[in-house]
């Protein structure tokens, strides 16, 4: 994130590092996004080339550019979240809580490494596919684009290929770092909610017990802090997540369509093509499922606070003391969630809806393509 210039911190006009983000942003826009958008106008009417344009670069880069901008402008708010995470880590009361947070940190690390490796394997496969295609259709760009100069002459061709590869690396860096960072924030909240549930279960429920009032006050403050934490995530990223949801739906549809077209071609590189599309489709599914999974976990853990309050020995309390638990339970009835533009919450149900919508659009594209070939 520091290399890309989007590491969350307070931005200052007199700091050079605050403007580092302009370098990857310019590369993504000037080398891929704008040239591909111009080329989209040139190929308009050819459904195969339109689908290729949207799938292999344009939609992905547009989302990456918007992610970069949103994440950069949210730097100060995200810095506050990082400070809260550090305070939560230092406030762990028991060894069990510390182990739970360490386990979540390891899960986030594995997800980050897995997503990063998957994307760069896709870039490597794409470059290999491009090199193999040169034998069949001549010198072509890695990403079909329009540039206001002769890209076929040397060294223009080689430099353009290098620039597109470097810009694709920037896209992958932004995509994986932002997605895994947001996932880490949400996983942290889930871990803190698990700790909070355990504290509720371990409450000493005895009448006229001063320790009970101290503990319940700490639990309420912590619960309120976690609610604010999730609200900050939601307010900063809900527009970005809406773009992610729509973009992944379109990408999944058009990439599956390109894979079907590749199956119908009779050339010597079909194995490389299918391998590339398999990795690419798997990465798109991984992206959207990651958000749906953390959203489902957040909903489940936040509602679980209500069950944890019921599981403590509340029947030993006086009516006035038991009412304090009821307030917590009433608050927990409204689950915490992350949404796509405040339209819908990320969950397993949304993931199924995205798959169904993408496959519906895919069937329409396939039918249109069959009609055009006939």
TrEMBL record:
What GO terms in the biological process aspect are recorded for it? signal transduction
Q: Where does this protein reside within or beyond the cell?
A: Cell membrane
Question: What Pfam families does this protein map onto?
Answer: 7tm_6
A GO molecular function held by the record: odorant binding
User: Does the keyword Metal-binding feature in the UniProt annotation?
Assistant: no
- GO CC terms: plasma membrane
InterPro entries noted in UniProt: 7tm6_olfct_rcpt (IPR004117)
Where mainly located?
A: membrane
Swiss-Prot/TrEMBL keywords = Cell membrane, Membrane, Olfaction, Receptor, Sensory transduction, Transducer, Transmembrane, Transmembrane helix
Indicate the transmembrane segments per the record.
16-34, 54-73, 111-137, 166-191, 241-263, 269-292
Topology of the protein relative to the lipid bilayer: Multi-pass membrane protein
The similarity comment for this entry is: Belongs to the insect chemoreceptor superfamily. Heteromeric odorant receptor channel (TC 1.A.69) family.
Protein name per the record: Odorant receptor
UniProt source species = Vespula pensylvanica
């Amino acid at each position: 994130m520091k290399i890309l210039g989007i590491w969350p911190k307070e931005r200052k006009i007199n700091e050079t590092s605050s403007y580092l983000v302009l370098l990857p942003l310019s590369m993504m826009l000037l080398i891929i996004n704008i040239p591909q958008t111009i080329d989209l106008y040139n190929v308009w009417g050819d459904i195969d080339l339109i689908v290729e344009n949207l799938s292999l670069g344009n939609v992905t880069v547009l989302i990456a550019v918007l992610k970069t901008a949103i994440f950069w402008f949210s730097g100060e708010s995200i810095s506050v979240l990082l400070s809260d995470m550090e305070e939560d880590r230092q406030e762990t009361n028991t060894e069990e809580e510390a182990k739970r947070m360490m386990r979540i940190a390891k899960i986030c690390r594995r997800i980050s490494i897995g997503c990063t490796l998957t994307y760069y394997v896709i870039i490597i496969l794409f470059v290999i596919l491009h090199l193999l295609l040169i034998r069949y259709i001549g010198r072509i760009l890695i990403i079909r684009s329009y540039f206001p100069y002769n890209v076929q002459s040397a060294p223009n061709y080689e430099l353009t290929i290098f620039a597109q590869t470097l810009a694709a690396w920037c896209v992958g860096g932004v995509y994986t770092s932002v997605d895994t960072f947001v996932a880490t924030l949400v996983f942290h909240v889930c871990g803190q909610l698990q700790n909070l549930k355990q504290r509720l279960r371990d409450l000493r429920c005895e009448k006229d017990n001063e320790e009970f009032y101290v503990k319940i006050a700490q639990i309420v403050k912590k619960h309120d802090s976690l609610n604010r934490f999730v609200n900050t995530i939601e307010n900063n990223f809900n527009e970005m997540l809406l773009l992610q949801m729509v973009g992944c739906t379109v990408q999944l549809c058009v990439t599956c369509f390109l894979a079907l077209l590749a199956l119908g071609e009779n050339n010597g590189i079909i194995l490389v093509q299918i391998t590339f599309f398999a990795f690419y489709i798997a990465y798109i599914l991984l992206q959207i499922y990651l958000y749906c999974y953390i959203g489902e976990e957040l909903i489940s853990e936040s509602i679980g606070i209500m069950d944890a309050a019921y599981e403590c020995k509340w029947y030993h309390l006086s009516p006035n003391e038991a009412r304090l638990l009821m307030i917590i339970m009433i608050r927990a009835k409204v689950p915490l969630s992350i949404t796509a533009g405040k339209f819908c919450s990320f969950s397993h149900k949304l993931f199924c809806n995205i798959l169904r919508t993408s496959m519906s659009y895919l069937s329409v594209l396939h039918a249109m393509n069959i009609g055009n070939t006939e």
